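Quick review question:
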């Protein structure tokens, strides 16, 4: 019974995540299909908007980073069942994004505007490809595990949790963090850049760079020299850029 509840919770968390992800695309793209976006919503004085928006980005980053760390997971899985840990994380991250959508105050000053139809179409194509890269990367790394469904399903079937596996499928052969590369592209590629959009893109980019540092520490702790070698050979967000010399000794070729 408890495992059925856990599976139900995982499905609800996944549904909330998916709806939030779709809304995020419309929010960042300022698409007229949703009521509030990065450039449309309740007005506020510039200083208030800046403070509120920075606070919302910081809250999102704090929740994401704190809950993703191994130390937090060890403590947290003493309170919630291990198979539900990822779903709780996914739900909490989605709720932080919903809070951001709700609290965001537009800062409408235009910083750049591309009116040339070909230029604008190119930027929209980049925007769409960024989101496509994000979604595809989740499937490459293991979509259903990343969003907590696999853990709940395995618990329901009485199967042991899958051990973490080091993967280098497709995009991961060219960059170590394609999911974040996709977000970078999606956040920055716009024909109409406002002050608010720039704040969002810059804040999220800064957070992603910090998140990568922390994630790589964990990945090295789990995968050791394999990940060190990968880091020395493969770029971080763009091919060939951001390779880091290994700190663990690399075994000589046999
Ligand atoms: C939100 S995903 C982001 C993955 C990666 N940072 C990216 O941008 O594509 C985070 C999870 O992916 C896992 N991960 C990242 N790179 C990996 C790899 N090469 N093989 C296996 N797991 C990986 C991390 O341990 C973490 O649980």
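Suggested answer, residue by residue:
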């Amino acid at each position: 019974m408890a495992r059925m509840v856990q599976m139900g919770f995982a499905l609800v968390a996944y549904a909330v995540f998916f709806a939030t992800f779709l809304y995020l695309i419309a929010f960042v793209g300022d698409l007229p299909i949703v009521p509030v976006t990065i450039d449309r919503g309740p007005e506020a004085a510039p200083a208030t908007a800046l403070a509120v928006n920075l606070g919302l980005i910081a809250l999102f980053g704090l929740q994401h980073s704190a809950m993703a760390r191994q130390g937090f997971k060890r403590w947290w899985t003493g309170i919630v069942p291990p198979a539900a840990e990822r779903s709780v994380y996914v739900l909490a991250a989605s709720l932080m994004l919903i809070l951001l959508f709700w609290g965001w105050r537009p800062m409408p000053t235009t910083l750049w505007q591309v009116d040339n139809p070909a230029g604008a179409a190119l930027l929209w194509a980049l925007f769409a490809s960024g989101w496509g890269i994000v979604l595809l990367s989740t499937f490459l790394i293991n979509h259903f595990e990343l969003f907590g469904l696999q853990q709940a399903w395995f618990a329901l079937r009485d199967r042991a949790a899958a051990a973490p596996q080091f993967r280098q499928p497709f995009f991961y052969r060219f960059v170590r963090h394609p999911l974040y590369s996709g977000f970078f592209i999606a956040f920055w590629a716009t024909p109409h850049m406002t002050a608010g959009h720039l704040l969002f893109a810059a804040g999220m980019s800064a957070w992603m760079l910090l998140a990568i540092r922390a994630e790589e520490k964990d990945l090295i702790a789990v995968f050791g020299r394999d990940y060190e070698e990968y880091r020395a050979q493969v770029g971080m967000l763009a091919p060939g850029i951001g390779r880091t010399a290994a700190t663990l000794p690399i075994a000589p070729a046999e």
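Why it works: The radius of gyration is 20 Å. Residues 2-233 form one domain.
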